[in-house]
Amino acid sequence: MRRGLCAAAALVLLAGCAAQQKGSSEAGTQGVTDTTVKVGGVLTKTSASGYSTKDAEIGAKARFERANTEGGVNGRKIEFIGAEDDNQDAAKGDAAAKKLVQKDQVFALVPVHAPNFGGAAFLEQQGVPWFGWATGPQWCGTRTGFGYNGCLAPKPGAGSQTWWGRQMADLLGGAAGKTVYVQTTDSSGSKYGGTTISQSFQAAGFQLVGLDSGLPAAAPPPDWLPYVNKIMTSNGGKAPDIVVSIIAGTKFNVGLYSALKKAGYRGALTDATSYDPAILKDPASAQALEGVIAAPMFEPFESSAPEIAQFRKDVEKVAPGAQLTQHMAIGYWSADIFLDMLKKAGKDLTREKFLSVGNGSYSYQNAGFGKVDYPRDHSEPNGCGALVKLVNGAFQVAKNMKCFDNVPLK
Nearest-CA neighbor of 57 among 120, 139, 113, 15? Predict the structure, then answer.
């Protein structure tokens, strides 16, 4: 009897081990069939602040559609199920990531373009790759999160970007003797961005005369005067030569820039988000942002580069007549890197193999966004960006995209 029980127990144990191995194998190839790879994304489509990244869905779809038209990747077409909305809420972002992985059974998340994305820890624990605009610290130090621009929140000692300051120095004829003031909100991402961007301008030779993170992130303040007065007297009682806004939202920048101009500010205004053709449809916003120098981390739409012509063509195919936006470009280039990594992973596809390729001296260059090198860029930015200027109601290329070496973050 005892021998029979032992034999039965051994069979149960073996069956359990077999089931465990099968489950592990299925998890590794989740979302993969002989003919398809399933992906979905997480975006901030709606939020209390009015900030929206929903156009990234169009950009990703455009790139995936071209890949499918060309026969797919290693014989598999991309099954893009669209993007979930996190409402700029970290908890909802975590729930969205879990839904995509556990219910929808996606292989990877593309694109992830949400400033307060809360699903990073879950995706890292599950070994699920995710691609997007790496604006916050949740992207950095992972093995699963791949920003098309690297990591914008490096830790002290890691490489920090210098391209924005150096591009501005070239545009303004040098940095010697010029001063800069950086305004952020009190959100963690904005404050961290203020630290890294300040050092970017200092590395280029500008003198930092102020870094303020006291602006509430929830909504524009009813009175801009306290912030404006601080800026206008920051340079030894005078205004600085450059004001850098690390604020996510047109309403914030319109309010700040309008108040500064009303106070007589005549220096340069620059930020990372005002490169948005939708602004041109609103005369008041266009007037407030006239002269702004925006800093996109991709080649501008007004460029004559063939990669941008292809981007335009791809977007027009899936969204005829749609106006190009920064968020479209971010979705498109995130998808482009995912497709390149997918191709290099080969026909025998699992998440483990995919991640081993992405984290094994992976390098990719494209004139549309610059370059990425992983695993290095899990801890530092790719160092690439361009400048565009709003002149007489139209955006013009001020500096084509260029890549620069990073410097250690202090």
Answer: 113
Contact between 276 and 292 (Cβ < 8 Å):
no
Amino acid identity, position 260:
L
- 402, 382 Cβ separation under 8 angstroms: no
Residue partners of 125: CB distance under 8 A and separation at least 6 = none
Please tell me the pTM assigned to this model.
0.86
Digitized pLDDT (tens) for each residue of the chain, 410 residues in all: 444 434 444 433 334 433 333 333 455 799 999 999 999 999 999 987 778 899 999 999 999 999 999 999 999 999 999 999 999 999 999 999 999 999 999 999 999 999 889 999 999 999 999 999 998 889 999 999 999 999 988 888 888 889 999 999 999 999 999 999 999 999 877 888 898 899 999 999 999 999 999 999 888 999 999 999 999 999 999 999 999 999 877 889 999 999 999 999 999 999 998 998 878 888 888 999 999 999 999 999 999 999 999 999 999 999 999 999 999 999 999 999 999 999 999 999 999 999 999 999 999 999 999 999 999 999 999 999 999 999 999 999 999 999 999 988 77
Query: Could you tell me the two tokens for 75?
Result: 């014989």
- The encoded tokens of residue 15 equal 């069956």
* Tokens encoding 334: 């995130």
Helix (H, G, I), strand (E, B) or coil at 93: helix
Angle between helices 351-358 and 326-345 (to 10 degrees): 110
Angle 227-224-197 from CA coordinates, rounded to 5°: 45
DSSP-derived 3-state class of residue 15: helix
Three-state DSSP class for residue 32 = strand
